[in-house]
Every structure is written in structure tokens, then in C-alpha cells.
Design a protein that fits this description.
Blueprint: H1 2-35, H2 46-70, H3 86-109, H4 115-125, H5 140-151, H6 158-171, H7 176-189, H8 196-237, H9 247-250, H10 253-266, H11 290-318, H12 326-343, H13 351-369, H14 375-382, H15 385-394, H16 405-416, H17 430-444, H18 450-467, H19 472-480, H20 488-503, H21 510-531, H22 538-551, H23 560-581, H24 586-609, H25 613-617, H26 644-650, E1 657-661, E2 667-676, E3 681-685, E4 691-696, H27 697-706, E5 709-711, H28 717-734
Antiparallel strand pairs: 1-2, 1-5, 2-3, 3-4
Length: about 750
């Protein structure tokens, strides 16, 4: 088998090196053409150095093939380099890494033709080795790394590197299918699964047919859309002297649709859903005179203020905050409207005002029925119904603008109390006290404008962020900075804050903490300075840090050793690059890697022989407090890739709240804090940011399938409520009105 692999190694490395040399030559011509436009500009010596680049590139490719047969991982030490200006080279090399990462991702996304057959054949040759993107010698990331290492000693400037990398992407990655096809053909000639490609061709034909069908469907949809657009345009051109649509009009689609549904409901005899205005006089004119409308709104605002004051007084006297429910508010509004109209103080209210009153009432009815919202939070939010109704009356953009400060405030309030499933000791919860104060401030404001609402929203966010150690003002300053290099104190604090978020307030070995606070911190500062906060390279770097923290955590689970051995070589390799760019010397990197490996092995040793008492207290305690359908199973059967629950797990966003069942029947909630795709694990934290649970994606999918866990925070509160209202209105409007029974 070694002989066969050597043949593939020499053939593939020769083909890739030939393409790489062509890319160098093309980039040389482009760079020389660029430099000719400037006097005294000297192009880099690409032609002179191309032989050395080719040798380093080919040797690195050979090393990746050798790892399969020697089963040894290359030492993570970085090759010695002579840099005249380390800081400058670091920035240029960082840009090169970022460019290569983007090209590799793009190539992987389109699924390299023949790569699966190649991997299958390699695993047939070496059945004891699982071959994936981390150890596949022809994986594009490995080839990209080889090219990075081959050109790095030359110290090219970033603008030259980008030109070279663009040509590498076009010439090498552009012909990657041919390289893999050549490798497969060679293996077939050597007798390694020669019939494998028959199935591959059949699968390719099926895929081609599906693609053609999808393309035909897309073409038909585009044609239909074009015809509808043309018809719409024709209708619009037939209107004489049509006024241009104002921004407010263009953003009122949702409100207009909901109005239409409400009007359809009002025409039916069983309009119990319109309890807030049932029996009151509604003007048939949608657009009243501006002055009359203004006076009417003032009267309505005053009436709503009086209703709110009376209901709050009664609720305080009865000692039951739940007294203020959507139904009670609707009844109070209906009684007041009838009384005002009977006395002549209030004429027929405009159709728009009636629609707003009814729609806000329905929204709060939906909020009260929302299972994701704990009862204590429903009672607090329920008190804001009149105030939000006043906001919507003065600004109907509330229904259409998802970023409206009133909607954002309701969503933030709901998120703040999503974990309050137990009311014991809730008065001592600082977030609960803040929410109560925010609600009280909102109720005390007679005419809450957008600026006031935004201030309440900011105060709530700042208060919540302090619980988990996050400074939102700092993040805003960093994001809004025009020249981030002039705010290095903020950048350093921002990076420190982001690192602390990854640690999840659990036990961490001091040496790892020091590594995070020094060299990794320095690397992230350079990254933020280069790309800005959370640029295109931020996510993969954070994934590397998440994986690092996972390998040194105290608690271990079934299968963790296998996962660790699979990802650690690539982790150490990536970490070595991070440390180098972060300013660590070769000797320092060697020492850090040695110490890291010791900590990693020690955690597995502890898990095998029993953790210390201190670490047990910081361990996976929530797992023992909840009822899992798979608790007594060491492993769970694999689900197919298209399983709906597995696909739902893969789509879960960071920050999604999940609800588990406690041993005593209580509801236990925690949020998704991190996902590590390479080990297929999800990590959950409580409302204070402390890690409380760790599950594999497959196990979580089985829990969803068994109904032992459910997602409680899909979408924002107001969006969920509006979707519920629209669904109910549509359902009611399609029902035939019931005839009243005769006496």
C-alpha cells in the first residue's frame, strides 16, 4: 500500500506544483505590469525565487502524504525565519492567511468532484485510519497551507501577495477537479476500487437531472415574476397623476395587510376577536381631516391614560398583578369608548385608530398565550399594553419596523426573563429588579417617544450585559470607530471581553488562562485592527479557541478521546500559526505546545480516575438535574443527514434558549452558548454565562425527537405574536359566519 500511495503522492504533487508554477508566472506578469506605471518601482523577485517556492511547496505536500503512513503528526514548531520587521510581516502574512481561508471555503462549498471517491479509496488502503479534511493530503486547506509556507520566507507585501493568491485560486483551485480525477484514475489503474466511479457517475447523472429540473423551475418562476411585475407596472402607469410613494407608505405593508384582515373579520357576525371596539362607532372614512384626527387622538390618549391608571390602582389594591390581562384591558377600553361616545365627548373614531386598538389587543392576547414566556414576565409585560397602544396610535410603523424601539424593548424584556421558570428568590435577582424598574418608568411616561423608548432599551441592555461581564458601550465604541488603530485601549479591552465570553465562567487551568491573556490576546488585537470587529476571519478563529477550551476542560464524555485525537493535530497546527502572528518566538511556541499537551492529557487522566472535588463542583451539574431520554445510553444511533430534528439542531443559532424537564418536574432553561462543528458538540450556559450542559448534535436531535427538550426562543416575542395574530385572522376570515339561533 505504501508503494501505491507514493505513486499518488508523486503524481498529485507534480500536477499541483506545475499548476502552482503557472500561477506564479501569471502573477509575475501582472505585478511587473503594475510596477511599470511607477518610477523606480522594483517588482519582487518571483522568477528568481520560483524554484525555491516549488521545492518548499512539493516537500510540504510530500510531508502530508507521509503522515498517513508514519502515523506521526508534524511538530508544531514554526520554521525559523529572519524578519527585519516582525510587526509588518505579521500583518501581511495575516492577510495572506485570510485570503487563503476564503478561497478554501469557496472551493469546499462547491463540493470538489471526485473527492469523495478519493477519500474512500484512501480509507480502503488504510482501514484503521479515518480520513477526513483534517488529514486528507489533498484537502484544499492542506494544499493552501503548503503554498502559504512556501511563499512566506520571501516576505512579500500584502498587495503583491493578494495578486499571487488570486492567480493561485484561479489556476490551482480552478483546476482542482482535474488533479483529483488524475489521482482517482491512478488508483483505479493500481486496482484500488476500480468500480467505485460507476456509482459515482450514476449519482452525478441523477444530480445533473435534479439541477436541470431546478433550473427549469427557477426559470419558470422568474418568467412568472417578470410577467407579474410587468402587469403591476402597467396598472400603475394607468393611474393619472400618481403621487410618488412616501417612505412611510412603502413600509406599511404589514400594517395594511393586518388592517384588511381585521376589516374582513369585522364584517362577520361573530366578531368576538374585536372586543376592544365591539359595539362602538367607527368612521367609514379611512382618512379624516388632519385637525380632527389630531384632536381625536388626543382624546383617545387621555382616555387610555385614565384606563391605565385605574387598572394599575385596582391591581395594586387586589394584590394580583395578573388582573391586568389583554381581555381585561379590551373590556375597559370598550366600556370607556361607549361611555365617551354616549356622552358626546368622543365621536366616531377613525378606522385606523380602531384597527390599531384591536391589533395591539390581539398582540397582547397572543403574548399571554406564548408558552416561551414565564408567567411572571407575562404579568410584567401585560402592564405595558396601554402604553404600547399609545405608541402604535401615534406611530403605526410599530407594526412594520422590526427595529422600532418599542418592539425591541418588548423583545429585550422577554429575553431578560426567559429563564424565570421558578419564582423562588426572584426578588433578589438583579435583572428582575431592573425589568421592574424599566416597566415602571415606561408606565409613568404619559407620551413615550422613540428617544425615550431607546433610552429604556439601552439601560436594560447595559444592566443585562453587566451580569455576564459585557460592556455594551465598549462594543459600540469599537464598532463605530472611524480609525480603530487610534483606539487601542478599547480594542484591547474588547478582545479581553470576547475571550472571557468564550470561557463560559467554568474552571480553567492557569496556564491556559495565561495563554489566552497573552499571545492569543495579541493575535486577536492584530486581527481586529486589521479587519475590524468580527470580520470575515473572526468566526474560524473563535472556533479554534472554542476547540482549545474544550480539549482542556475537566469533564469528559463518552467518545471525547476519539474526537480529541481526531481534531487535535489540526488544532495545534492552527494554534501554532496564531501564536506566531501573536508575537511568540519559536522557543516560546515549543514550550507552550508542550505545556498544552500536558494539560490536555492530564484532563483525560483525571476523567479516567475521578475528578477532584473542586472540578466536580464546576462540572456538568445540570445534566444530573434534568430528565434526558438518552441519559442511560452511552451512545445514540446515528440519524440520517436529512432527519428533520438533526437539521433543526444544525440550524440552531447561538443564543437560542432550550427547555429541559427537571427531575422534580420543573422547567429548566439554558441558552446555546457555543457550537464546535469539528467535534459535533453544543454547549449550553445559564443566564449568568456559566456553562451547565454539553451535548452532541446527534444526542440533542434524539432528545428533540423524544420530546424531552424543546426550543423556546425561535424568533423574537413580537414577531411570534404578530405571526400568531395574522394566522388567527386568516383562519377566522376563511370561516363562514355562524347564524345566530332564533329565539
Amino acid at each position: 500500500m505504501k508503494e501505491n500511495l507514493d505513486k499518488v503522492k508523486f503524481a498529485a504533487s507534480k500536477a499541483l506544483t506545475r499548476l502552482m508554477m503557472k500561477a506564479l508566472d501569471e502573477s509575475r506578469l501582472q505585478i511587473e505590469a503594475q510596477t511599470m506605471r511607477f518610477a523606480d518601482a522594483k517588482p519582487p523577485p518571483i522568477a528568481e525565487e520560483s524554484r525555491g517556492i516549488a521545492e518548499r511547496f512539493m516537500n510540504s505536500l510530500h510531508d502530508y502524504f507521509e503522515e498517513l503512513t508514519t502515523l506521526l503528526v508534524n511538530d508544531t514548531e514554526i520554521e525559523p525565519e529572519s524578519y527585519d520587521n516582525l510587526s509588518l510581516v505579521d500583518h501581511d502574512y495575516l492577510e495572506a492567511m485570510i485570503a487563503m481561508e476564503g478561497m478554501v471555503k469557496q472551493l469546499r462549498d462547491k463540493e470538489i468532484k471526485g473527492m469523495r471517491s478519493f477519500l474512500t479509496r484512501l480509507e480502503t488502503m488504510y482501514p484503521n485510519i479515518r480520513i477526513d479534511e483534517t488529514n486528507n493530503p489533498l484537502d484544499p486547506e492542506q494544499v493552501g497551507d503548503c503554498f502559504n509556507e512556501a511563499v512566506k520566507p520571501l516576505g512579500f507585501k500584502a498587495h503583491y501577495l493578494l495578486t499571487i493568491y488570486r492567480e493561485f485560486n484561479k489556476t490551482v483551485f480552478g483546476k482542482y477537479d482535474d488533479v483529483i480525477a488524475e489521482a482517482n484514475d491512478l488508483l483505479v489503474d493500481l486496482g484500488v476500487l476500480p468500480d467505485l466511479d460507476i456509482t459515482a457517475r450514476e449519482r452525478e447523472l441523477r444530480k445533473q437531472k435534479r439541477d436541470e429540473a431546478r433550473a427549469q423551475l427557477a426559470e419558470e418562476q422568474q418568467l412568472k415574476a417578470a410577467e407579474e411585475q410587468a402587469e403591476l407596472k402597467a396598472r400603475m402607469t394607468r393611474k393619472p397623476k400618481a403621487k410618488p410613494e412616501s417612505p412611510d407608505q412603502s413600509q406599511s405593508e404589514m400594517f395594511t395587510m393586518m388592517q384588511s384582515l381585521v376589516h374582513g373579520l369585522a364584517k362577520q357576525s361573530n366578531n368576538a376577536g374585536l372586543a376592544a371596539t365591539a359595539g362602538t362607532e367607527i368612521s367609514g372614512e379611512l382618512a379624516a381631516e388632519q385637525e380632527e384626527l389630531r384632536k381625536q387622538q388626543q382624546k383617545l390618549m387621555g382616555m387610555l391614560t385614565d384606563i391605565q391608571a385605574n387598572m394599575l390602582t385596582k391591581a395594586a389594591g387586589s394584590g394580583t398583578p395578573g388582573f391586568i390581562s389583554a381581555n381585561n384591558v379590551a373590556q375597559s377600553i370598550n366600556d370607556s369608548l361607549k361611555a365617551e361616545q354616549s356622552s358626546g365627548d368622543l365621536g366616531a373614531i377613525s378606522a385606523q385608530s380602531g384597527d390599531v386598538i384591536n391589533l395591539v389587543t390581539m398582540l397582547y392576547e397572543a403574548i399571554w398565550k406564548d408558552e416561551a414566556l414565564p408567567v411572571v414576565m407575562k404579568e410584567l409585560i401585560g402592564r405595558t399594553q396601554i402604553t404600547i397602544m399609545k405608541v402604535a396610535l401615534s406611530d403605526t410603523a410599530f407594526f412594520d419596523n422590526q427595529n422600532h424601539p418599542a418592539r425591541a424593548l418588548l423583545n429585550e424584556l422577554a429575553l431578560a426573563g426567559i429563564a424565570w421558570t421558578q419564582t423562588v428568590n426572584l426578588d433578589s435577582d438583579p435583572v428582575y429588579q431592573t425589568v421592574k424598574q424599566i416597566v415602571e418608568r415606561l408606565l409613568s411616561e404619559s407620551a413615550p417617544g422613540n428617544e425615550f423608548l431607546q433610552q429604556l432599551l439601552n439601560d436594560l441592555r447595559v444592566s443585562r450585559s453587566k451580569i455576564v461581564g459585557t460592556d455594551l458601550n465598549l462594543e459600540r465604541r469599537v464598532r463605530e470607530s472611524e480609525d480603530i488603530s487610534q483606539s487601542m485601549d478599547d480594542v484591547n479591552e474588547y478582545v479581553r471581553q470576547k475571550i472571557n465570553e468564550r470561557v463560559l465562567k467554568g474552571y480553567l487551568d492557569p496556564s491556559i488562562r495565561k495563554l489566552l491573556d497573552t499571545h492569543i490576546h495579541s493575535f486577536l488585537v492584530k486581527l481586529v485592527t486589521r479587519e475590524g470587529p468580527e470580520g470575515k476571519s473572526w468566526k474560524p478563529v473563535m472556533s479554534t479557541i472554542d476547540a482549545l477550551l474544550w480539549t482542556v476542560q475537566a469533564e469528559k464524555h463518552v467518545g471525547d478521546r476519539e474526537r480529541f485525537e481526531r481534531i487535535n493535530p489540526r488544532l495545534l497546527d492552527n494554534l501554532g500559526k496564531v501564536l506566531e502572528i501573536g508575537g511568540a518566538s519559536k522557543t516560546k511556541i515549543t514550550k507552550i505546545m508542550r505545556q498544552l499537551k500536558q494539560v490536555q492529557e492530564f484532563t483525560f487522566h483525571q476523567a479516567e480516575h475521578g475528578a477532584t472535588a473542586e472540578q466536580s463542583q464546576n462540572g456538568d451539574s445540570l445534566t444530573n438535574r434534568v430528565i434526558l431520554a438518552t441519559r442511560n445510553k452511552k451512545d445514540v444511533p446515528a440519524l440520517p443527514r436529512n432527519d428533520p430534528d438533526l437539521r433543526r439542531v444544525d440550524k440552531l443559532a447561538i443564543g437560542t434558549w432550550m427547555e429541559f424537564r427537571g427531575n422534580s418536574g420543573e422547567r429548566v432553561r439554558c441558552a446555546l452558548a457555543a457550537k464546535i462543528d469539528s467535534i459535533e458538540k453544543l454547549f449550553f450556559a445559564d443566564s449568568e454565562g456559566k456553562k451547565v450542559m454539553e451535548l452532541t448534535r446527534m444526542r440533542l436531535a434524539h432528545e428533540l425527537k423524544a420530546g424531552a427538550v424543546k426550543v423556546v426562543s425561535e424568533g423574537s416575542l413580537v414577531n411570534r405574536a404578530m405571526e400568531s395574530v395574522i394566522s388567527n385572522l386568516k383562519q377566522t376570515s376563511t370561516q363562514k359566519p355562524r347564524r345566530r339561533a332564533s329565539a
